[in-house]
Amino acid sequence: MDYFTPNFKSYVVPNSEKSGRTPVLRNKKFIEDSLITEFSQVKTIYDIFWRGKPYNPETSSFLSYKFYTYKESAEIVTNFASGLIHLTLKLSKTEAEKNSVLQRQWPVALYSINRPEWNLTDRACSTQSLISVALYDTLGHDSMTYILNHCKAPVIVCTVDKISRILLNIQKLPNVKIIISIDSLSEPSGPRSGPPNLNIRAIDILKQWAEHYNVTLVDFDQVKEYGKQHKIDHHPPKPSDIYTMLYTSGTTGNPKGVMSTHENYAHAARYSSLGKLDKNNTPVILSYLPLAHCYGRNVENYNTLLFGSIGYYSGDISRILEDSRDLQPTSFPGIPRLLNRFYDVLRAQTIDAPGLTGVLYRAAIKEKLEILEKTGNPRHEFWDATLFERTRGFISKRLTVAGSGSASIEPQVLNFLRVVFCIDLVEGFGMTETSAIGSKQEPGDGTSGNIGVPLAGVEICLRDIPEMSYFTSDLPCPRGELLIRSKSVFSGYYNEPEKTAEAFLEDRWFASGDVARINLDGTISIIDRKKSIFKLAQGEYVAPERLENTLQKFPLVSQSFIYGKNTMSYPVGIIVPDEAVFMPWAAKLVKQNKSFKDMTKDPIIVAAFLEEIAKYCKESKMNGFEIIKKLYLEYIPFDATTNKLLTPTMKLKRFDASKYYSNTLDNLYS
Description:
Shape: globular
GO molecular function, one term: long-chain fatty acid-CoA ligase activity
Pfam families: AMP-binding
Keywords: ATP-binding, Nucleotide-binding
Radius of gyration: 26 Å
Protein name: AMP-dependent synthetase/ligase domain-containing protein
Helix content: 25-40%
CATH superfamily of the largest domain: ANL, N-terminal domain
Oligomer: single chain
CATH architecture of the largest domain: 3-Layer(aba) Sandwich
Structural class: alpha/beta
Largest sheet: 8 strands, mixed
Strand content: 15-25%
Domain AMP-dependent synthetase/ligase: 64-494
């Protein structure tokens, strides 16, 4: 492959190619990290927040039903941080415990939906060099207990509805000494996130319950008041201090605690913000991406770096459009699951609309898509001012840019939304281990099916994966495992030195486990996943995630779990059909009215479904040994709360799924 063509979008570091690896790629606009001076004074998350106070003291920084300026936010952060240290010192029983508190770098767990208090607590932790440990709001009892014990957090800051869940497991949580309720424990009813049946009697029982187990239960305002009365000087962190621990999804076992330093996330925020600072136009974002996920965390950090405002959603993802239209954000960090929903709604209102409306939209979108492909421009002077005036404001009338991250998005969805929103909608890639950054499409890039080029401050290359037949010498495009090097890359997995050693190669290259391709134009595409492969009896390797991603595009399939044994020559599958498509199809086969459950158990339907799958897999150019030979149709969807087969970020927990369906899988192979 020729890396030095004029239209190659990445910068290729000269003489960086090694045996079994591609050359190193960087961002073409920002070749040398040392030459980038914008935000160079920002070394920590503490710097990000506190530089905003003197510059824009009256700018609204956090929005929900109440507005906080940077000045007001700074006062809350200082008082809460002081109160946190004061309360923990007060409860320390020995000099050794007091010294441990004063040495800082101990964990504070956050267990809540996105709210201003979540962010304020995170800033307070930075103000005193404490480590924030984020727990997904949707975590079940087992995962919550595992993480709290693994990180040994003595303090939990949570919404009032989480208190009973913690106290139910408190005998399994020997490190927990303090629970701080974000919601008031003095009022008869809490703020919007509190359960509707919250009352004084229920609060009294919670307090007695906590006291019974020698746990101190206070609320956010009480801790602020302690701090106001017992001010403690700021204890700013060093760049090398741990800023946060985020726990990976744990798709193959217990989640790993990713330790990220202040330098890691400050670097990510800096390089996500380059060229975007405009003090005359305050950026506004809607915070709905879970703050226990790196994507949501980095979005808030770099928005704060740009002196922006943050509005918090209502807590109900089904109301996300109402929340967004109320706030009118200037940018929108999207995820494919949500963007697919927007696509379905807008498609029905435009190109699938009946009559003249549909005719006009089909003509306009066809023309705009042709222009997008040729020029990368999603805008059109005539159509945007007339036909697309309404769709432009679907999310927000002030929207100028949007992104898609956390998973791949279908090209037709991405391009459709670009032209109906009339904005740059860019796809990007990042990981928990890289503080959410890695690569991103540049504004004005109208291509799809790729994750763009390396972000400024990031280096990327590929290495051979012989066991999967991916080689950097492949033609026309090199393929291999994606390696990333950057100051944003984490310091290690907490208390897991062996897994940390496995993740890093020489010179601090992080092995992502993702299989990528460097395209002819210098962009990068994720094409597979390395870590979940299994070997069949004949010695062939199978990557189940790639097969599942292929099946996801088949209309009859909603969810799938592909499984294989090294003693068998073929894979099998557990498949959840898409009920809306499956039921009419199945009814034609059996000519009977049956329930969804009964249809999935009918042997005629199962056999026909398997034939359809095999046909589709062949059309999708799958190898013969990759095609499932037997399947089980499941009528109960995989989820994160009931059968717990999905992580909070909707990834399949492969290890748990194999245990859950153990008997079924054995039967399929019998």
